[in-house]
Amino acid sequence: MAGRILIIGACGQIGTELTLKLREIHGNDQVIASDIREGAEELMQSGPFEILNATDEPHIKEVVQKYEVKQVYLMAAMLSATAEKAPMKAWDLNMDSLFHILNLAKEGTIDKIFWPSSIAVFGPSTPKDDTPQTTVMEPTTVYGISKQTGERWCEYYFNKFGVDVRSIRYPGIISYKTLPGGGTTDYAIEIFHEAIKNSEYTSFLAEDAALPMMYMDDAIKATVDIMEAPAEKVKVRSSYNLSAISFTPDVLAKEIRKHITDFEIKYEPDFRQKIAESWPSSIDDNAAREDWGWEHEFDLEKMTTTMLEGVGKTLKEKA
Ligand SMILES: NC(=O)c1ccc[n+]([C@@H]2O[C@H](COP(=O)([O-])OP(=O)(O)OC[C@H]3O[C@@H](n4cnc5c(N)ncnc54)[C@H](O)[C@@H]3O)[C@@H](O)[C@H]2O)c1
To answer: How far apart are alpha carbons 64 and 60 in whole angstroms?
Structure first.
């Protein structure tokens, strides 16, 4: 492969598994992990790592030059629930980091960028069911505003400067290897930990809060697929809708109860319920399926059995 890959925000929920996957595909020394903090042992041990702040442009340039980086995956961001508590900090991190990377591509230093967007780009005025690729977008969270603005700038840099930037609107990502980073869909991960430990869970979302979700392996596959697709197949240069499963806390609890029969769920919705209400319930991702062949593998049943097994194993190892 010509040039190495740099992952910024590699120690997070998605970054950790993405880094390991890319190292498996391209070779350990070809994929440089970076973050403002150290991460999981497997990530730290398997290849090069740099402490790097996504807002520190000179340091990003230094690392890019040091390793002859040609592709950047920018995973660092402040997520929806955390961002509501520190709006200006979230805005600065989410926007400044994106501009630094877009500008590196504009000046020809790097060739390709992956930047994740989110279902948070949608708002209360967006059609809630089967939300189309192109539709009304009036996000009401600072996170959603930053992602929507980011999408506009990605498309602008592609049209104006030919920057090869590729993006996906991730739904809520469910996984067990790394804990989630402060999003509104985190309940769908916590519930597995509590179900196994205590057979009960108190949900911070209401029982009928339907949200689009995806198991981590599908999210990683989509990320790898869109980055490997021939440039002409990536027709949307803002960000692609992407979907797999959609469920409510009540439906998930019932699925878990098939395995843990005495599992009980209570509901104490907090400020995150309001964020959830502003987002779609399900997503139309036909554009991704048609343009670059996206297909998901994990349905609710398979996700649930995989999570119960994975979380169970992790908790046993910790005990
Ligand atoms: N996880 C989801 O459900 C989800 C859904 C939609 C979109 N996304 C997007 O995917 C991306 C990755 O999400 P995630 O869930 O892995 O997030 P996360 O919070 O788990 O990880 C983010 C990582 O960025 C690092 N970071 C924070 N500030 C930094 C800085 N200034 N410089 C460098 N690193 C910094 C953190 O230490 C952390 O390791 C984000 O852009 C997020 O908005 C995630």
So the answer is: 6
* Inside any domain, residue 5: no
Query: Which of 6, 20, 35 best tests ligand 1's pocket when mutated (most atoms within 8 Å of CB)?
Result: 35
Distance of CA 183 from the midpoint of ligand 1 (Å): 10
Sheet containing strand 112-114, edge to edge, reads 49-51, 31-35, 4-8, 69-74, 112-114, 164-166
C-alpha 117 – ligand 1 centre gap (Å):
11
What is residue 86's three-state secondary structure? coil
pLDDT tens sequence across 225-259: 999 999 999 999 999 999 999 999 999 999 999 99
- Residues 67, 143, 176, 187: which is the catalytic one? 143
Which domain CATH number covers 278? 3.40.50.720
pLDDT 10s digits, 106-135? 999 999 999 999 999 999 999 999 999 999
Task: Tell me the per-residue pLDDT of 188-206, one tens digit each, with 9 for 90 and over.
Answer: 999 999 999 999 999 999 9
Rounded to the nearest whole angstrom, what is the distance from the C-alpha of residue 96 to the centroid of ligand 1?
A: 14
- The reply to whether 13 falls in a domain is no
Q: Which of 13, 147, 151, 178 to mutate to test the pocket of ligand 1 (most atoms within 8 A of CB)?
A: 13
pLDDT of 1 above 60: no
Residue 60 lies in a domain: no
- Which runs of E-coded beta strand occur in the chain? 4-8, 31-35, 49-51, 69-74, 112-114, 117-118, 164-166, 168-170, 172-174, 200-203, 211-215, 240-241, 245-247, 264-267
Return the ligand 1 atom nearest residue 53 CA. 32
Q: Give pLDDT, residue 26.
A: 97
Residue 138 forms part of a structural domain:
yes
Q: Indicate the angle between helix axes 87-106 and 57-66, nearest 10 degrees.
A: 40
Supply the range of the domain harboring residue 255.
Answer: 77-319
Q: Structural domain tally of the chain?
A: 1
Instruction: Render the burial of 140-170: b for 16+ CB within 10 Å, e for the rest.
Output: bbbbbbbbbbbbebbbebbeeeebbbbbbbb
